[in-house]
Records
---
Amino acid sequence: MGAYLLTGAGSGIGAALADLLHGRGEDLVLVARSAERADELAAAYPGAQVLTADLARPEEAEGLADRLPSRLDAVVHSAGIVALGDIADLDLAQWRSTLEVNLLAPVALTRAALPALRAARGRVVLVNSGQGLSAAGGWGSYAASKHGLKAFADSLRQEERPHGIQVISVYPGRTATPMQEAVHAHEGEPYDPTVWTRPESVAATILHALDGPRDAALTDITVRPGG
Ligand SMILES: NC(=O)c1ccc[n+]([C@@H]2O[C@H](COP(=O)([O-])OP(=O)(O)OC[C@H]3O[C@@H](n4cnc5c(N)ncnc54)[C@H](OP(=O)(O)O)[C@@H]3O)[C@@H](O)[C@H]2O)c1
């Protein structure tokens, strides 16, 4: 059994991965944004250690360092937010919160977890996005945060390889989660979740990467809705 630290375990892809890991008896460390959310996660995942940090304040993630286990087999950053809008319309506060949650919080939490990851020769999974590879109009702040997340992953991979840490970026396409429902609402499109990848399927892909052989490190995994 291993120890896995997850953000975003309360919803969507992160919740689906927490279900899979909890179901096979792994030790979970879950980061919840509020005390109320922490209570919900503790009830949903008996035995899990639940920590509280609002990832819109990355220093709160950094402050978790003393409360982490001494060994972590993986840290999976799934928490994320999106604020759609043209650059002419999105204000700086929206840019800032997107960059805090999607980029700076993973940086801060990874730094806090590095000793435990090094001890276990663990893996870091960054849940990125197709927008982290190619930015579309109307997605500027989100795409910038995810491009930054890719850069962070690529640098971290090189730096931590001597310490045995593997770094995996996962780029889902549209996935049927509350985030995707909100995107459709913004786009003014009807939402049919059956058209998009299920969060359970993205989670299964992440689990495959987490379980993979050490001598064949996965680096970048793109997931698109299948037919
Ligand atoms: N859905 C898609 O189509 C899609 C496509 C590509 C990439 N992604 C990426 O996949 C990841 C997971 O997204 P999802 O679709 O599963 O979204 P989701 O269902 O909206 O879940 C997002 C999770 O992030 C957490 N979170 C957001 N802000 C937070 C904060 N300030 N502090 C702590 N936690 C916070 C949420 O916490 P609460 O539960 O407390 O709200 C929630 O658990 C994201 O990084 C997203 O960018 C999604």
---
Amino acid sequence: MFDVAIIGAGPAGTAAGFDLLAKGLKVLVLDKYEFPRKKACAGGITPKAYHLFRYDISSVIKKECQTIRITPFNKKSFFIKNKNTLCYMTKREDLDLFSLNKIIEKGVDFRVIKKIRSIKETNSSVEIHTDSESFKASYLIGADGANSIVRRLIFSGRFYKKQFAIEADVKMERPDMFQMEFDFSKSKNCYYWIFPKDDHVNIGVYCVDSKVRLTKQLLFDYAKARLHSSNLEAIKGYPLCTGGFHYQRDSKRIFLAGDAAGLTERLLGEGIYFAVKSGQLVARSIIESEKHAVLVQMLYLKKLKSIQADLRFYDLVSKWFYKFPRVSLKLLSFPFVRNRFVNGYADGKTITQIIFGKPYSKKKL
Ligand SMILES: Cc1cc2nc3c(=O)[nH]c(=O)nc-3n(C[C@H](O)[C@H](O)[C@H](O)COP(=O)(O)OP(=O)(O)OC[C@H]3O[C@@H](n4cnc5c(N)ncnc54)[C@H](O)[C@@H]3O)c2cc1C
């Protein structure tokens, strides 16, 4: 019997695992893939996410960006710059393998599993049944991403929403010729990105309107127009789960973290920060509860409040932003507004800390 079973070895699962193992708990991590494995993600890590990791991740950083190019619709691009890093670039397969190795060093029991058939919660434990094996633990953390099976098996209501993104790597001789870029000029409710890495450039499209079909062809057209290349590799699309500020009802022994709990922000689709943060929060709740199941649930929901409030605010901002992109980007082009955002981002602040000076509270609106 394990103290905690975690399904999913992405940023949320490994962050939770690391803190639980550091306190001497017996932890099982289950994933459907051997690592390294490809995960659809542009691998942009904001300073606030970078500093959240309990260990130094600099060895998996391919590039640090101090300049971001913004391209509005029908207007000239402008640049936001800072002397400090605005975004760290990684490859998700490298970051996730690195984090998994960190928890393996700490003694995690990591297993690759086949399909999960059922999850059963009793008064004192949780059982996970796959096609071929069963596992038992005092608590279960569902950190299995946007299509979470834990969420599907345990939750009846739909508290979250799905947005979509598609990405590809483009091999380039000189990726350093490109700036990190958010390009809003091509389509309503969507943006394209260009994220330069060490030996390639990652490009993609993120869309807040789930009715828009994101096709490979969009990426080929964009790569041809902007990078003069059709050398696209590892094209992959995947949903991002937002709306996690509605995540509330939970079982006493089963908790969701990261994308499984809808904890990605809707504006630009940043999810790594919220995954790591929620993983750490659920771990801390289990550690602090001293084995009282009701208390874990209470503590976790209480601790989540501040990031949920943040996400609710991102949601409001994104609705305004995608309705009035020109006005919003115009605002960002004014030095006073731009400097406040850029300095705040580089300092590792959340959007609400930048705007309100402290974490967002509902009373502010
Ligand atoms: C195209 C794209 C680009 C993105 N770019 C960025 C970016 O640049 N920066 C950023 O901050 N965020 C980005 N995101 C969002 C970010 O990828 C996610 O928010 C983040 O990965 C969530 O972490 P997680 O640990 O919750 O889930 P995941 O990273 O999805 O990890 C879940 C893990 O669970 C495993 N799993 C899933 N189902 C099962 C199952 N049934 N059984 C066992 N294991 C299972 C998976 O194999 C995986 O290892 C992007 C998303 C997409 C789709």
---
Amino acid sequence: MKNAMRYSVNVFIALVAVALLASCKAGGDNPGLEYAPNMYHSVAYEPYTQITNPDAGSWLTSIEYEDGHAEFYNSNALNPHRMNMRTPPSNTVSRNKANMLPYRLPKDSLEIASQIKSPFEGAEDAQLLAEGKALYAMYCTHCHGAKGEGDGKVATGVTIDGVEHSAYAGVANLKGDAYKDITEGHIFHVITAGKGLMASHGSQMSQEERWKVAHYVKVLQK
Ligand code: HEC
């Protein structure tokens, strides 16, 4: 009994040693022997790998694919050269889901930015206004105040449980004369890149949301 156990332990150690040695031939495109290979080989298409042999990984195939390919095959027969990702046509720029081009003007381009037309400029759409209002309440009210008068709680300071929190100085009164004539493009750019004491909100809000708020600010100013 004891011998049998020692024997199986030895066999086990030998097998592990063989597996370790076999995995040593890894290099280049060869990953060597993989432990639990299903963990490394994605069922979904992978953009950066190309395994064109339909029989690759047939020894462990666990899913029945319609075209009968084996587990590791991950090429896309519908695309040229069986690529998973198509190369975009040259000189094209991709648009986002809202069909907008990327906004790449740097922070110091406020003058040019203010000439850019909003996709919503001049629109009188109740839903657009409601969305702009909701976004303004989320991202701007605490500083600029519900009416844009620069009297949000952050701007005036608050006392919570007897502890005074001092005011964030210099918040703009968007209804003031200085801001009467700013364009939606100007507001969009300030939200995107920030200006002076106001930090950028470009990473928090999508392009579309920023234009909606800019549109709402113009309505608020009236
Ligand atoms: C943390 C407080 C704070 C938040 C939040 C904030 N602002 Fe401001 N905002 C400021 C301050 C402070 C200024 C004055 C900047 C300066 O001139 O130094 C300012 C200035 C502005 C200006 C005038 C820019 C100019 O040309 O001088 C606009 C327009 C504006 N904010 C719009 C917004 C909108 C829209 C939002 C919401 C997306 C927003 N702000 C959120 C603090 C804030």
